[in-house]
Amino acid sequence: MSKFQTKTSQYLVTLIVLALVVSFLFQQADPGARFSSPDDMGSVGPLRITQREYSMAYQSLLSRYAQLFGGQEPTRQQIEQFGLKQNALEQIVQQKLLVLFAREFSIAPDKKEIASAIKSTPYFVKDGQFRVDLYRNLLQQNGLTPAQFEEQFRQEIKAKKAFAPIQNIPISRNYLERFHQIKEGGLEMIKIQIDHQEVKAQIQISTDEINAFIADESSQQLIEDLYQQNMDRYYQPEQVLVSHILLQEQEDESEEQLLQRAKEIKSKLTKKNFAAQARKHSQDPGSQEKGGDLGWVQRGMMVPDFEQVAFDLPAGTISNPVQTEYGVHILYVQQKKAEQKKELASVQQELSKEYLQDRKSDQFQEKLKEISEKASEYIKANQISQLEKYLKSNNAQLEKNFTLSFLNNSAHELGLDRDEQIEELFSLEEGEFKKFTTNQNQTLIFSKQKRISPPQLDQEGFESLQRQLENTTQQQISQKIMEKLRDQYKVSLRRVQ
User: Fold this and answer.
1) What is the pLDDT of residues 471-484, one digit of tens each?
2) What is the DSSP letter of 93?
3) DSSP H/E element including 103
4) Are 266 and 223 in a shared domain?
5) Is pTM beyond 0.85 here?
6) Cβ neighbours of residue 126 closer than 8 Å, sequence gap 6 or more
7) Contact indicator for 275, 341 with CB cutoff of 8 Å
8) Which of 98, 265, 449, 452 is within CB 3.0–4.6 Å of 159 for a Cys-Cys bond?
9) β-pairing, 442-452 with 186-195?
């Protein structure tokens, strides 16, 4: 093993041990211990959260995130963005609750059990043998005595034993097979989606009607109001297609050093390699994996200094480093769109026609009814190709093999307004129809064709589903236990800055 591998391996082991010992260090059962020291970060029931525990948990989190960011320590902005300080404190709260839960069961592992658990820990074993020197060295690196570390294992074993009853919850094969039927089964349906605006667009309005409406003085303000209400259709602000590389101060790095680092990166950038360099260097988690791409940007979407450079640069240009409150940016302006606006005079015919179509509600309802009834006739006659042509001519959408899952569909996914409407679909007999008018100005028509039965579970599928359900059940029960413990024991925390 190389020196680098040895050093890295030891570093990772130290991190793992650090994460372990944070859990249960200094668990004191003194009921009066709450905030007994001015440095305490809080308490969970009778247990203190010491400054040392918090510092170790926080450093452990920082180290884990550093690994995610390729070895770079998270910046101040990232620490705040990901809530690392509060997360570290919350982890300790969860761990303390586990200790209290174990105490309720009066579980007391003996010394042999603790010794066996420590001796079987891989970080202390070499060539199949427990090494006392490895054990003591790693503890010493983390400022721990063997007694403190052994107490941690005692508490960990207690917590595991307390949760043991929910680790092996029996689930019968009949239940699993029924769940499989519900999970994978469903209904095969025909789904028709009719957009009301498309239907209204088919209502005939003559040119004479439109011109008469525009010529009427009482219509002028109404047309102006319609124009303002639909401005998003007729106005496109100036836009730029921009990518960026964001650099933020690293630990012990000054603003001058950050700016110099940005200049060095800028000197190597070209239009061809910008995306690859953004993936390598950028510290913006939202755009890094996309090669720094921010999409089309208009004024008001970015901070002023960024915006000014983005809109001033010609298309196809890479900027010099730009400093903002978020760090230092290097911009690549790929394309630009000029401001465009259609004047009222050029769109008043279109607006007037739409308004007059809206007013003819009787004709709209008749047309909607006509489409619905004709579609139903085609489905009953199993004339699906004719149905498809008819709906296409009326700008309606057709899904011929729509699957309604027993378990996985929501009203929103189906375009419906309420989950109760899904229950109505499941009550349909084969060949029956159901029509809904939604809040999105659509009419949806469903026709049940047949029930879908999933294939029988083989042994491999049975075991896989069993593991999934067991894990899900255990997680749900564990979550409920933690919620109850939090209600039972008072949690007091200091605000972390």
Assistant:
1) 888 888 888 888 88
2) H
3) helix 84-104
4) no
5) no
6) 134
7) no
8) 98
9) antiparallel
